[in-house]
TrEMBL record, chain A:
Pfam families: BPD_transp_2. The keyword Secreted does not apply. This is Branched-chain amino acid ABC transporter permease. GO terms for molecular function: branched-chain amino acid transmembrane transporter activity. It comes from Mesorhizobium kowhaii. The chain crosses the membrane at residues 17-36, 42-60, 67-85, 91-114, 121-139, 173-191, 221-243, 255-271, 278-299, 311-332.
UniProtKB/TrEMBL annotation, chain B:
GO terms for molecular function: ATP binding; ATP hydrolysis activity. InterPro entries: AAA+_ATPase, ABC_AA/LPS_Transport, ABC_transporter-like_ATP-bd, BCA_ABC_TP_C, P-loop_NTPase. PROSITE patterns: ABC_TRANSPORTER_2 (PS50893). This is ABC transporter ATP-binding protein.
Length: 346, 311
């Protein structure tokens, strides 16, 4: 986790906002013009939703050091809450539903964050599994949550903001991109604020943090709340913009692990890391399927694909934990430094 | 940065424990004033003022191991109070009791006249107490500046939303925190490593960053748990100078735990000596230097079987 503020003093110094602004300009100005609907539907939408969930989990696990295996539960809570607010509260704008859904997810996050006041590490991770199982069980058990739909699978409402319909692939992409950009910016501000410093202090040395007067209990619960808020909104994007349906099964333990892998592979305690990790997690199965089909032809059916995905992903995680514990972000920074160095010395 | 010359001279006269203690001790002088040394010292610098901190009958054990047994200690405002003793004597346990990390089995801690059976760790900073740790307890993922700034976290009143949006009192607070942290960094000659990740610094500098984190809150009582452990002689004298300078600047009262008796003799006003969890002496450096029990504790008592006959 040492890659948070590495020393780049010998590099040409660009203001920190340049790269994100250029990326955003590209995402808003160029991608909608050149992107195919496959790119939006199969790659960019899940990428955005998972990135945001990764940002949320990174605040909790990467920065505040509290391991959680309940991310998918908070996504589910967000998605179902947004659906119900949208359904049951007349005249509530979509943005209002999404915000309130985040609040609901945050409240659930605080409740399931309470064990963190006594438990640490592995034990805490196991206790957050309770959130995972409880939320999924409650959403399946009480059909009120899915408006008494027989299958438990419900269509997401139409997306529109201020009367502008966003149901097309591009519209949904822009909708997701905007929410992710805003929340990521706020998350970045958070981790560089005093509260963010408190998160890291508690992660690195809880006793010392308590002695210098950081309110440890409050700060831990705050980390759970903020993290769950962001993950909840990511759940809304996942259900409303990407899948277009809301169902509990999509938010199972596998999803929780997927988000945890995203931040481990991408880089703990790094906002960029969530995006790196999500990109890998989304693109990797598609690339593997293309590659497998190309090399093995018909032998590479969906069963083999699924199995090989798991094997390769498992291997990747082990490799990252051993070789690059700071994740893709650290790898990227090192490569960039090498290239710059090589470029300067020519 | 100018330091008081007396502080820099501290180390020169002193040396390591055995030499200091054994130097010039004719056996006729040894039994001197033993019983008096163990009571409250009379000629201390601040004998008139009421103690800022006092421990009464502190007892602490871990299972069957007695870490502290019936320890009394009083610390007066403005003094440097050293606690010395061999390894495992209970020095760090005592600091941990004062800072509330351990709850004593018996006895109480009086801070500013208020008595605690268990010092509330969470409120320690508000009570004006700061400490350093024997084994570094810095936040490795934060820069030097942020580590020091975290020493002011207890004062922060703005909430996270204000900080994220940069509204309300958070801006002023942030500016104030960083400027105070910068002042301390300059004071302790750490400005050059201000933005370095603290884990990448050499050990001696990390120790100093920890001192900075404790000092930034301008505590009334500063607990230093072996601030010079593992340092070279020149680093030690530098650190001793910083402790002195900090004292002059902030008028802090210091409880200093140190293994190196030489450092302690030069720095402190009064010294308490612990051995096997008991306080065996409590007096001025000169008196402690000549105390037979202290000498025995540090040098060991000659065994009856000195020749090793029969082994």
């Amino acid at each position: 986790m040492a890659a948070i503020t590495s020393d780049f003093s010998f590099m040409p110094v660009l203001p920190k906002w340049v790269v994100p602004v250029l990326l955003l300009a590209f995402a808003y100005g160029v991608v909608p013009l050149i992107g195919s609907s496959y790119l939006f539907e199969a790659i960019l939408l899940p990428f955005l939703a998972l990135s945001l969930a990764g940002v949320g989990l990174n605040i909790l696990t990467g920065y505040a050091g509290q391991v959680s295996l309940g991310s998918a539960a908070f996504m589910a809570a967000g998605a179902f809450a947004a659906y119900n607010f949208n359904l049951r509260v007349e005249g509530l704008p979509l943005i209002g539903s999404i915000f309130l859904a985040g609040i609901v997810a945050a409240a659930i996050g605080i409740v399931f964050g309470l064990p963190s006041l006594r438990l640490k590490g592995f034990y805490l991770a196991v206790s957050t599994l309770a959130a995972q199982f409880f939320v999924q069980w409650a959403l399946t058990k009480f059909s009120w949550f899915s408006n008494d739909s027989a299958s438990g699978v419900i269509d997401a409402p139409r997306l529109s903001i201020a009367g502008v319909a966003l149901d097309s692939a591009i519209g949904r992409y822009l909708f997701a991109l905007t929410i992710v950009a805003i929340l990521t910016f706020l998350a970045y501000r958070l981790v560089s604020s005093q509260t963010g410093r408190n998160f890291i202090a508690i992660r690195d040395n809880e006793t010392a943090a308590r002695i210098i007067g950081i309110p440890v209990l409050k700060t831990k619960l705050l980390a759970f709340a903020i993290s769950s808020f962001i993950i909840g909104v990511a759940g809304v994007i996942w259900a409303f913009a990407y899948l277009r349906t809301v169902e509990p099964d999509g938010f199972d333990l596998d999803r929780s692990f997927q988000i945890l892998f995203i931040i481990i592979i991408g880089g703990l305690a790094s906002i960029r890391g969530a995006f790196f990790g999500a990109a890998l997690i989304v693109v990797f199965p598609l690339a593997l399927s293309r590659l497998g089909g190309f090399l093995l032809g018909d032998l590479f059916d969906s069963g083999v694909l699924d199995m090989s995905q798991r094997i390769v992903l498992g291997a990747l995680i082990i490799l990252f934990l051993i070789l690059e514990p700071d994740g893709l972000v650290a790898l990227w920074d090192r490569i960039r430094r090498r290239l710059l160095f090589a470029w300067q010395s020519t | 940065m100018p330091l008081p010359s007396s502080a820099l001279g501290v180390m020169e006269a002193s040396a390591y424990a055995p030499e200091v203690l054994a130097r010039g001790l004719p056996s006729s002088l040894r039994p001197q004033q033993q019983s008096e040394d163990r009571g409250e010292p009379t000629g201390s610098v601040a004998g008139v003022a009421s103690p800022l901190l006092s421990l009464q009958g502190i007892g602490l054990s871990f299972g069957g191991v007695v870490a502290l047994a019936d320890v009394d200690l009083s610390v007066h405002p403005g003094e440097i109070r050293a606690i010395i003793g061999p390894n495992g004597a209970g020095k760090s346990s005592l600091i941990n009791v004062i800072s509330g990390v351990y709850q004593p089995d018996r006895g109480q801690v009086l801070l500013d006249g208020i008595s605690y059976a268990h010092v509330p760790t969470q409120r320690l900073a508000h009570l004006g107490v700061a400490r350093t740790f024997q084994n570094l307890a810095l936040f490795k993922g934060l820069s030097v500046l942020d580590n020091v700034a975290s020493g002011l976290a207890y004062k922060v009143r703005s909430n996270f939303a204000g900080q994220v949006l940069g509204i309300g009192r958070s801006r002023g607070e942030q500016r104030d925190t960083l400027s105070r942290a910068d002042q301390i960094l300059e004071f302790l000659d750490l400005s050059a490593v201000r933005d370095r990740l603290v884990g990448t610094l050499p050990y001696g500098l990390q120790k100093r960053v920890e001192l900075a984190r404790a000092l930034v809150a301008e505590p009334r009582l500063l607990l230093l748990d072996e601030p010079m452990a593992g340092m070279t002689a020149s680093e030690k004298s530098e650190m001793a100078g910083f402790v002195r300078a900090a004292l002059d600047r902030f008028a802090t009262t210091v409880v200093l735990i140190e293994h190196d008796v030489g450092v302690v003799m030069g720095l402190s006003d009064r010294i308490a000596v612990l051995d096997y969890g008991r306080k065996i002496a409590d007096a001025t450096p000169d008196e402690v230097r000549n105390d037979q029990r202290v000498i025995d504790a540090y040098l060991g008592v000659a065994s009856d079987n000195e020749d090793g006959a029969g082994i």
